């Protein structure tokens, strides 16, 4: 097992000092790492998987960014881009799973970096990874719940007098932020419940996502009176994006964002390990299974919906019934063309809305566990307060902190959607950088000293790790490319500015202050 700095110390057969009574392997491993069992360890593998699967939520990601995929490349971009992105994401997940097996703590990524970077660099590596991870998670929650508020706006629009074209009711930006606040409040309330209730909600969320995908991928193309041909779905490449981007490779790359944004957030399985039984094996399984199953059901959802696409320019037109919200327009037109009413399409949007709600709920769960662990190690202002758990062994203060910060992040939308989108870009690139940092330390500084846990990749660990790191480096560059020409304040891709700004702030905070007092993960039990 592992003591400070990455040296591993073997203990006899994970037996507790209580007369030889069998103890959970995750509990024993946490003790070996120097931490008390403060959270209730009650989650099964299914529950652990359910949290990550619900955060990935293909219904959320694909629905939210389907417009982006249609505009940049169309069917080819997301039908094939989904698999390209999926394969490389599996590599990232495998590398994370191997490390998670050795260090199954709620701290997850930042704890891994501290142990893998070696004693000299451990505090800084932990600090950098931790802040990219937690800010990225907050950005995910912000974007997910804001996208639900926007979808509710579209549902209201379609439900009133025939939608946008018929003078339907549209909620303004202040109403949207109010809905966003209400959603976050509900998520904080739910996450204040005991973990047994959250486990049940998580399993329901996973089932809803799977059932919702299969329902919609079959129902929508069957109901639609006009369907796309297989040739269109598998070979059509849309270059008419209206944004001045003409290079086909550039267009395809921008279309990949739909896939990579969707398959994000599976680090939740790592953050839930202190509440998961046999976490040194079930944590890694939760990470990898959530990615693989999401890739399979997500591709089915993309195919099913795309077979109902016949007119890309109209779906993206802001003057259509759904105000340019492509999937909402697809659902609405499918039912309206067959039955003369789009009510069935609105009900289908309700299915997606529930999935997005569950996604945000699980995201707040993951956020709060990361905040709990990070504050346990003294990295956050007012750390003792955020680290407290209630009588149900739930880090309730960290829950409400995560909801509040996500609300504050969304307030940028009142000033400018450009500023909001820049901030939300951290949800993809910032979070993936946090994923890549411990993997990078694993294949460099800890290449020879790393001792894997029960789940390991053997001799393939290092090459898979390098593929993962290079993939993250690649998408960090590609997703920073211009998204429109000519480049103006309104069309500039602010991703590199947002991510670079986070890097500068984090490093400056380290140089000016944190290096004097933050020493990395701190054990809280006597040796």
From TrEMBL:
<protein>
    <submittedName>
        <fullName>Amino-acid permease BAT1-like protein</fullName>
    </submittedName>
</protein>
<keyword id="KW-0813">Transport</keyword>
<dbReference type="GO" id="GO:0015180">
    <property type="term" value="F:L-alanine transmembrane transporter activity"/>
</dbReference>
<dbReference type="GO" id="GO:0015189">
    <property type="term" value="F:L-lysine transmembrane transporter activity"/>
</dbReference>
<feature type="transmembrane region" description="Helical">
    <location>
        <begin position="78"/>
        <end position="100"/>
    </location>
</feature>
<feature type="transmembrane region" description="Helical">
    <location>
        <begin position="287"/>
        <end position="309"/>
    </location>
</feature>
<keyword id="KW-0472">Membrane</keyword>
<dbReference type="InterPro" id="IPR004756">
    <property type="entry name" value="AA_permease"/>
</dbReference>
<dbReference type="GO" id="GO:0016020">
    <property type="term" value="C:membrane"/>
</dbReference>
<keyword id="KW-0812">Transmembrane</keyword>
<comment type="similarity">
    <text>Belongs to the amino acid-polyamine-organocation (APC) superfamily. Amino acid/choline transporter (ACT) (TC 2.A.3.4) family.</text>
</comment>
<dbReference type="Pfam" id="PF13520">
    <property type="entry name" value="AA_permease_2"/>
</dbReference>
<dbReference type="InterPro" id="IPR004840">
    <property type="entry name" value="Amino_acid_permease_CS"/>
</dbReference>
<feature type="transmembrane region" description="Helical">
    <location>
        <begin position="491"/>
        <end position="512"/>
    </location>
</feature>
<feature type="transmembrane region" description="Helical">
    <location>
        <begin position="174"/>
        <end position="193"/>
    </location>
</feature>
<dbReference type="GO" id="GO:0015185">
    <property type="term" value="F:gamma-aminobutyric acid transmembrane transporter activity"/>
</dbReference>
<dbReference type="InterPro" id="IPR002293">
    <property type="entry name" value="AA/rel_permease1"/>
</dbReference>
<feature type="transmembrane region" description="Helical">
    <location>
        <begin position="45"/>
        <end position="66"/>
    </location>
</feature>
<keyword id="KW-1133">Transmembrane helix</keyword>
<keyword id="KW-0029">Amino-acid transport</keyword>
<feature type="transmembrane region" description="Helical">
    <location>
        <begin position="339"/>
        <end position="360"/>
    </location>
</feature>
<dbReference type="GO" id="GO:0005313">
    <property type="term" value="F:L-glutamate transmembrane transporter activity"/>
</dbReference>
<feature type="transmembrane region" description="Helical">
    <location>
        <begin position="464"/>
        <end position="485"/>
    </location>
</feature>
<feature type="transmembrane region" description="Helical">
    <location>
        <begin position="398"/>
        <end position="418"/>
    </location>
</feature>
<feature type="region of interest" description="Disordered">
    <location>
        <begin position="1"/>
        <end position="23"/>
    </location>
</feature>
<feature type="transmembrane region" description="Helical">
    <location>
        <begin position="424"/>
        <end position="443"/>
    </location>
</feature>
<feature type="transmembrane region" description="Helical">
    <location>
        <begin position="205"/>
        <end position="224"/>
    </location>
</feature>
